[in-house]
């Protein structure tokens, strides 16, 4: 069998040639090339689709279908002579064809006595539904007259039924035929019509109820349709005329406000910098925006425009990026270096410090530091704030010395970061800047009443509609004006489109699920009013509302002369607008939606794929858009890759939530990928990265993180040598430790040891550190220290390397190991060694980039604060807690922020106890904060370290004179220890429980148990505390002497110093 992998480049070349052939109409060449591809690769889906594609692309259209059938024709054929039958049926067919042609419908097949006609193809009109119904009525009347003649000549009657439906069909222009459910339903409507009548479907009734008198029929079951259908009998026509469209009228209040605001801005006295226009699509928001631009340009004011895009609602600062590209003169073909040069030049032309601003603005253009600038000295939320400030500074600089108008159109499609820029502009209040905003939704507009004036645009009144119609078509009759008011409901865009079509060429039409039926035909007529190649319209619509010439040329593969001619024709017919030399946009989004529906699904998919390929070939950095096109093209593997790239770029900008969303989108594609090892490996890689981002935001104990990692376990099987299994198990270890599931954590340590022994020697230190962590929380402090010291020696000797390929937790493994070493040393009484380990950990964390660096520092603060609290260094604990909270707030680490705030409440409370204040507000505040933390941890199952928090609560309750509450908390901690095997704090809890007893014997019992447990565990600090408390009860110093012998000689433990003082005296 031929190996397709060895011939991949040849296969790709043949497929590209086949696609070009089929797009140019050369079906024979396309079939031959696809056949050659299948000879190499028998399962090639692209080749199969090429062979299955219709010989002519055809179109998907919403058209009106009429089906006429002679009543009881079969029975009639058995009663009369064949020649007579042929004569009568021939006259009947002639009448139907004549009347269909009269209304410019089309009958493709005239065999038999059942005739199917379509209205809207090949000639389209803005009133094709009405034409079809009118022709149906005329057919019933003509056949009635024909029946009278047949009766007089042959002695029998004939009758006709007519059914009409409107819906989506595939038009096969080569075969002159239509396919789809809509054609079948038209025939079914005909079958239930009464003889001599026209029956229309509900889809048609909605469009003609104001044009014809109708009678509703009973719901009826018909063959091939699951639900009942409701026929409407067309009785007769109403007195009507056709509708129309127009410019800017009925907005005098808004225009006066804009004129006044511009005058104040020119004088530098504009106190309310923003004005917003809000309302439904087509209501006139963009018209007012264009009006203010005209006013501003007339006075040589500076105008800056940013546009929202429905394809980029999740892409940070996309409207700003497009503005920068336009102003910098950056084309799609520009190299990253050229982009950077042009950015610097633009900044310098605005008299800005390019060196200061480039690090903040280059990421907006998708440029990384590797292009040639120093990276921004901030990350996460702080980076976002600096970028927003830099963009704002640039926009303000563009209008320095002159009145500036900043137009933000379609803010309902703005991403949050761009909205923040507009919000920042509103807050500057320079007096010389007017910010004009448009949006469909009020809640997408930033600012308050002191910053912007909001106009909620209403439909035009009937009088205003008449004025608009007169401005567009002064000679329109009064009856036609009435129809405009009825059909357009005062929406300016609807009025404009209908009148323009009637005035120019009232013969084109269509429909869409996203465009109102009453408007669709006029919009479609606008699209087809020029001679432009339909492929150009389809490709432009696939790219989006705004597109550039270069990209469109790459997609349609037309020479520049042909393409320029098509674009000029579309511009002349008000389909497109030219924004700048290379940039174009659809005049209305509704026009683009209609155009996008024209291509059948197979062609639409191919177009989306061509757009994505062209974007990549042009070195576009718009990965979210590329991914969306691949997804629409059903090239799901390519979509996954593009979403992964989009996530990486967002993560580079510090936008972790955005990065996570793109990975969510990538993971949604996997159900559509073919099963196999490559697919599983890719999903595993993405889930590990997704789990990383979730852990960074929600903490390593997040259930969503666990779901990602457990799915990875399902995917990678049980091979201990598998890369995916090794990486997954390391990530799961942290998750299980966070949840105090030490049985599973220990199993993972043992499993990972097989991988280390099998060749991953570099990870032996982490494997030993994992075993040490489990031992420490189990209370086996001697073993924990031994393994952790051994891990540290390996850590020092092995050197550094990039661990991103195998480590998928947001905290760095080296920082993690050094934190564990610090805890192990401190518990054994080696305070100097603990400080040394934690200092090395901090040095390591500060070297790391976002998010590992900031996250690792927050993680480091946890053991630092824990040790500071246990050591009585309360000022130090408060300082560290404040740092943790600030970092977490800056970078969006919610778990660390809440924990930091908890420690910030606890530190002053313990300081108050040290000072002898036992009833201050700090005590009750700390009890509330720590209790909330403990309850949340228990509820979420993230219970590691929770017994120590139970101990802190017990201390506070004891100090507040509530020993019973303290015992409840202590017992809860001991139960948790018993359930999880987490015995690291048992000795302390027993010691604290002694203070809740009134009887000396009970106190001595708990203290003795605490000392004995701490001695067995090797916990020098906890043993000394129990010995000190016991000595206060009995003045016996033997336990003090034994505890003192557990410490290193250079220990700085304050409990050891107290014991030495007592022993010396």
From TrEMBL:
<dbReference type="InterPro" id="IPR029787">
    <property type="entry name" value="Nucleotide_cyclase"/>
</dbReference>
<dbReference type="InterPro" id="IPR027417">
    <property type="entry name" value="P-loop_NTPase"/>
</dbReference>
<dbReference type="GO" id="GO:0004016">
    <property type="term" value="F:adenylate cyclase activity"/>
</dbReference>
<feature type="domain" description="Guanylate cyclase">
    <location>
        <begin position="64"/>
        <end position="190"/>
    </location>
</feature>
<dbReference type="GO" id="GO:0035556">
    <property type="term" value="P:intracellular signal transduction"/>
</dbReference>
<protein>
    <submittedName>
        <fullName>AAA ATPase domain-containing protein</fullName>
    </submittedName>
</protein>
<dbReference type="GO" id="GO:0005737">
    <property type="term" value="C:cytoplasm"/>
</dbReference>
<dbReference type="InterPro" id="IPR041664">
    <property type="entry name" value="AAA_16"/>
</dbReference>
<keyword id="KW-0067">ATP-binding</keyword>
<dbReference type="Pfam" id="PF13191">
    <property type="entry name" value="AAA_16"/>
</dbReference>
<dbReference type="Pfam" id="PF00211">
    <property type="entry name" value="Guanylate_cyc"/>
</dbReference>
<dbReference type="GO" id="GO:0009190">
    <property type="term" value="P:cyclic nucleotide biosynthetic process"/>
</dbReference>
<dbReference type="InterPro" id="IPR001054">
    <property type="entry name" value="A/G_cyclase"/>
</dbReference>
<dbReference type="GO" id="GO:0005524">
    <property type="term" value="F:ATP binding"/>
</dbReference>
<keyword id="KW-0547">Nucleotide-binding</keyword>
């Amino acid at each position: 069998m031929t190996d397709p992998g060895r011939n991949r480049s040849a296969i790709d070349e043949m497929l590209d040639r086949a696609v070009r052939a089929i797009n140019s109409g050369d079906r024979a060449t396309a079939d031959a090339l696809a056949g050659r591809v299948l000879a190499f690769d028998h399962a090639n889906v692209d080749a199969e689709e090429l062979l299955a594609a219709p010989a002519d692309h055809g179109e998907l259209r919403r058209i009106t279908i009429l089906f006429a059938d002679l009543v009881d024709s079969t029975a009639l054929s058995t009663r009369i002579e064949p020649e007579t039958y042929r004569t009568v049926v021939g006259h009947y067919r002639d009448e139907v064809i004549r009347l269909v042609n009269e209304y410019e419908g089309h009958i493709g097949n005239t065999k038999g006595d059942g005739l199917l006609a379509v209205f809207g193809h090949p000639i389209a009109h803005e009133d094709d539904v009405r034409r079809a119904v009118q022709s149906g009525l005329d057919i019933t009347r003509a056949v009635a007259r024909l029946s009278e003649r047949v009766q007089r000549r042959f002695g029998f009657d004939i009758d006709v039924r007519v059914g009409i439906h409107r819906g989506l069909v595939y038009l096969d222009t080569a075969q002159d035929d239509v396919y789809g459910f809509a054609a079948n339903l038209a025939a079914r409507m005909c079958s239930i019509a009464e003889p001599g009548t026209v029956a229309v479907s509900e889809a048609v009734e909605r469009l003609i109820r104001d044009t014809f008198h109708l009678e509703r029929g009973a719901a009826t079951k018909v063959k091939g349709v699951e639900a009942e259908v409701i026929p409407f009998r067309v009785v007769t026509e109403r007195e009507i005329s056709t509708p129309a469209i127009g410019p800017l009228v009925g907005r005098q209040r808004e225009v006066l406000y804009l004129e006044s605001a511009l005058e104040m801005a020119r004088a530098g006295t504009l106190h309310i910098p923003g004005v917003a226009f809000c309302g439904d699509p087509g209501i006139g928001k963009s018209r007012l925006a264009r009006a203010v631009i005209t006013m501003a340009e007339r006075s040589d004011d500076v105008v800056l425009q940013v546009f929202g895009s429905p394809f980029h609602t999740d892409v940070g600062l996309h409207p700003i990026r497009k503005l920068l590209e336009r102003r910098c003169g950056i084309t799609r073909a520009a190299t990253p270096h050229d982009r950077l040069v042009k950015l610097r030049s633009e900044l310098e032309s605005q008299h800005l410090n390019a060196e200061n601003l480039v690090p903040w603005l280059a990421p907006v253009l998708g440029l990384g530091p590797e292009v040639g600038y120093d990276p921004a000295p901030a990350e996460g939320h702080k980076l976002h704030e600096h970028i927003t400030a830099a963009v704002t500074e640039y926009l303000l600089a563009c209008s320095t010395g002159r009145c500036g108008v900043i137009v933000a159109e379609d803010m309902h499609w703005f991403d949050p970061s761009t909205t923040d820029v507009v919000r920042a502009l509103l807050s500057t209040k320079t007096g010389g800047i007017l910010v004009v905003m448009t949006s469909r939704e009020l809640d997408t507009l930033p600012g308050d009443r002191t910053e912007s004036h909001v106009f909620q645009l209403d439909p035009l009144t009937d009088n205003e509609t008449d004025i608009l119609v007169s401005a567009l078509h002064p000679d329109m009759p009064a009856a036609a004006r009435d129809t405009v008011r009825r059909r357009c409901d005062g929406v300016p865009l609807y009025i404009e489109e209908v009148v323009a079509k009637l005035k120019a060429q009232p013969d084109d039409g269509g429909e869409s699920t996203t465009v109102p039926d009453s408007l669709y035909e006029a919009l479609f007529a606008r699209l087809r009013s020029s001679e432009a190649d339909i492929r150009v319209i389809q490709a432009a619509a696939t790219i989006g509302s705004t597109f550039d010439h270069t990209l469109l040329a790459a997609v349609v593969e037309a020479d520049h002369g042909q393409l320029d001619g098509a674009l000029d024709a579309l511009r002349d017919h008000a389909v497109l607008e030219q924004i700048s030399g290379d940039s174009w946009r659809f005049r209305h989004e509704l026009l683009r939606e209609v155009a996008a529906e024209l291509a059948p699904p197979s062609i639409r998919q191919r177009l989306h794929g061509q757009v994505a390929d062209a974007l990549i070939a042009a070195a576009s950095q718009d990965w979210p858009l590329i991914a969306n096109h691949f997804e629409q093209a059903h090239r799901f593997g390519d979509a996954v890759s593009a979403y992964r790239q989009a996530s990486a770029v967002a993560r580079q900008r510090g936008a972790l939530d955005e990065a996570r969303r793109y990975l969510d989108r990538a993971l949604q594609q996997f159900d559509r990928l073919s099963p196999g090892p490559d697919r599983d490996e890719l999903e595993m890689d993405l889930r590990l990265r997704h789990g990383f981002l979730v852990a960074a935001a929600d903490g390593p104990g997040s259930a969503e993180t666990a779901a990602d990692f457990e799915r990875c376990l399902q995917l990678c099987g049980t091979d201990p040598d598998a890369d995916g299994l090794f990486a997954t198990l390391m990530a799961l270890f942290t998750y299980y430790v966070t949840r105090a599931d030490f049985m599973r954590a220990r199993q993972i340590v043992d499993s990972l040891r097989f991988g280390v022994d099998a060749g991953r020697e570099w990870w032996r230190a982490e494997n030993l550190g994992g075993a040490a962590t489990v031992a420490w929380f189990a209370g086996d402090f001697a073993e924990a220290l031994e393994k952790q010291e051994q891990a540290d020696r390996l850590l020092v000797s092995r050197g550094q390397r990039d661990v991103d390929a195998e480590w998928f937790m947001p905290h760095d493994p080296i920082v993690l190991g050094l934190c564990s070493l610090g805890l192990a040393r401190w518990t054994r009484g080696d305070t100097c060694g603990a400080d040394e380990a934690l200092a090395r950990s901090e040095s390591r964390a500060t070297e790391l980039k976002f998010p590992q660096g900031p996250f690792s520092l927050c993680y480091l603060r946890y053991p630092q604060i824990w040790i500071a609290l246990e050591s009585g260094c309360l000022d130090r604990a408060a300082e560290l807690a404040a740092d943790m909270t600030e970092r977490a707030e800056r970078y969006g680490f919610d778990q660390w922020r809440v924990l930091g705030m908890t420690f910030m409440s606890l530190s002053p409370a313990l300081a108050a106890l040290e000072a002898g204040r036992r009833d201050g507000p700090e005590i009750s505040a700390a009890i509330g904060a720590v209790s909330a933390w403990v309850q949340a941890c228990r509820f979420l199952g993230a219970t590691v370290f929770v017994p120590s928090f139970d101990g802190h609560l017990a201390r506070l309750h004891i100090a507040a004179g509530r020993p019973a509450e303290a015992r409840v908390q202590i017992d809860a901690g001991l139960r948790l220890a018993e359930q999880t095997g987490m015995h690291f704090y048992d000795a302390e809890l027993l010691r604290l429980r002694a203070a809740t007893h009134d009887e000396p014997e009970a106190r001595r019992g708990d203290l003795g148990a605490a000392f004995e447990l701490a001695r067995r565990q090797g916990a020098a600090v906890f043993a000394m505390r129990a010995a000190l408390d016991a000595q206060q009860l009995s003045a016996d110093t033997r336990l003090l002497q034994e505890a003192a012998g557990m410490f290193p000689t250079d220990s700085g433990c304050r409990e050891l110093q107290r014991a030495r003082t007592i022993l010396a005296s």
